[in-house]
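Re: the request from the purification team.
They wanted to know what the chain is likely to look like in 3D before they choose a buffer screen. I agreed to run a prediction and write the result into the notebook, where they can find it.
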Amino acid sequence: MFRGICKLSHLLIVDDDESFSRQLGKALKKSGFEVGILTTGVGVVDLLKKEPIKVVILDVMLPKMSGFEICREIRKDREIYHIGIMLVSVMGDREEIEHGYAQGCDDFIPKPINFHDFLTRLKSLVSLVENEKLIEPLTTLGSGRYIRLEILRGILLKEDFDLAYIELPGLIPLHREIGNDGVVKLLRMFSFHLRSLAGNLLGRDYCLAHLGGGHFIAKIRSKSLQDFARELKNSWENTVFQSEALASLITDKNYATTVSLLGITTCGFTYYPNKGDSIGRVLERLRDLHSKCKMHSNGILVDRRSH
């Protein structure tokens, strides 16, 4: 059954409990949302590609296609993987909730719901979807949300891929030397360099994101990280010494200090599909490597372990 979808829709409820859907939809409309309702999971993915829906509220225990399955299908599809997903279920134990997050949901709320709490969390999710864009405006690389979605997509598709954390560790002290405008120019220059190198080495098989400050993440073709990290380090060092644009930021007074702060560090690993993996575990492994990377004299740390 399908009703209530129009071009102004923001929310989609998918639940075979018609009484629950009707009551929830009515309450959400009173709270200012446009709401559509489906009582089956079949066809949800196709519908999301046609309608401007911000958040889908999925019951886990649906006939024919479970909420977990729908969640996975949404997160695998780049056309719609940015849509917010809230799972609801009478099965609200810890294992069920953790499994829901591993499938890619943004929030998981056990039934029966407390509407006040539900509404607060829903508004937070709608705000996230509306305001946390997939492109980071300063560098025009992907955003933190974008790279999380791309990593999750790779996990759900059971792909092998390399994941790298790239940092300009001297950016904070550099700010004192070249000022805010200089840092902005530097970040844009490095981002352009990073994108150009990835394109030259990997074709179109890469995803890049700027997390803010001097922090970047790259998801690239499996088993290419060592060569990528080495080439990035060498080519950036050459750029630092040869670039007229960078030279314009550096005065004779602070030349030696500034150049010494322009180095980069890169750490990462090859991800192999493993049962029970989640994006949380993958990112935790990357953060752990990042904390160790600065101790390596050449600024490159590649973990070759399979898990």
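For the purification team: Residues 1-9 have pLDDT under 50 and may be disordered.
Please add any questions underneath this entry.
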